[in-house]
Amino acid sequence: MQVLDTAVVHIIEDDASLRDAIDSLLRSVGLKTRAYGSVQSFLSDKHPDVPGCLLLDVRLPGMSGLDFQTNLAEHNVHMPAIMMTGHGDIPMTVRAMKAGAIDFLTKPFRDQDMLDAVTAAIEKDRRRREGDQGAAALRAKYETLTPREQQVLVLVTAGKMNKQVAADLNLSEITVKIHRGSVMRKMAARSLADLVRMAEALGQSAHKQPTH
C-alpha cells in the first residue's frame, strides 16, 4: 500500500467537529491529511505533488463545495472529489456525479464507507498521474523526431507501405526505410503494432501531418 503511504487526503468541511473526526479516522489508518474550513483556504495553500483526493462538503461558506467541484479544472485541481452532505437530494447528487465526483456520502456516514471511498479515489488519482507521466514521456520521444520523421510516422502508422510513403513524400524507398528505422529507434518501438499504439496515444493521424 505504498501509494497510501505518500497520498494526502484534503478535507474541506466547515463543521470543525466533523472535520476533526474525519481527520482522526483517516489518520488512524495511516493516511496523511490536510484539513480546511473553506474552499478559499484550500486554494491558498500549497499542495504536495503526490496522489490524493478531496473530501468536499457540498455546503460551505463562500464558494460552495458543489460549485467548486464542478469547476475543479479551472482551479488546476485534478484530484478526484468525494462529496459529503447532510442535505443531499437527487438533483444535487446527479449534478455532482455528472461533474465527475466519484462518490457521494450522506451524513452521517459509516467509517468504512468513508475509507472505501477514499481508497478508491486515491487509486484513481494514482492511475491518472501514471498516465500523465507516460503521456509526457511519449511526447518527449516524439519531439526528438525530425519533421520528416514525424511525417513518416504518420503515414506508416496509417498502414501505408514504404513504397507508398516514398511516393507521398517524393522520397526514395531506401530513404523511407532509413527514416522508418530512425523513428522506431527514437520512439523505442518494438514492432509496428507498438508504433501504431504510440501514434494513437499521441493523437497523430494521416489527416494531420506536421508541417515543416
Give an overview of the whole structure:
This protein is α/β, with parallel strands linked by helices. The protein is 54% helix and 12% strand. It contains 10 helices and 5 strands, in the order αβαβαβαβαβααααα. It has helices spanning 2-6, 16-28, 39-43, 65-69, 90-98, 111-143, 147-157, 162-169, 173-187, 192-202; strands at 8-12, 32-36, 52-57, 81-85, 103-106. The protein has a 5-stranded parallel beta sheet, sandwiched between helices. Strand 3 (52-57), helix 4 and strand 4 form a beta-alpha-beta unit. Helix 7 crosses helix 10 (192-202). The two termini are 48 Å apart.
Short description:
The chain has 212 residues and is α/β, with parallel strands linked by helices. Helix content is 54%, strand content 12%.
Overview features:
disordered C terminus, 10 helices, 212 residues, alpha/beta, elongated
Main sheet characteristics = 5 strands, parallel
| First-last Cα distance | 48 Å
| Beta-strand content estimate | 5-15%
Biggest β-sheet: strands ordered side by side in the sheet:
2-1-3-4-5
| Annotation, overall tally of beta strands | 5
Helix-strand category: alpha/beta
Rg, Cα atoms, Å: 24 Å
Q: What is the mean pLDDT? A: 88
Total of helices: 10
Tell me, what's the shape? elongated
Helicity level, as a percent range?
A: 40-55%
Secondary-structure topology with pairs:
Layout: H1 2-6, E1 8-12, H2 16-28, E2 32-36, H3 39-43, E3 52-57, H4 65-69, E4 81-85, H5 90-98, E5 103-106, H6 111-143, H7 147-157, H8 162-169, H9 173-187, H10 192-202
Parallel strand pairs: 1-2, 1-3, 3-4, 4-5
Helix pairs in contact: 7-9, 7-10, 8-9
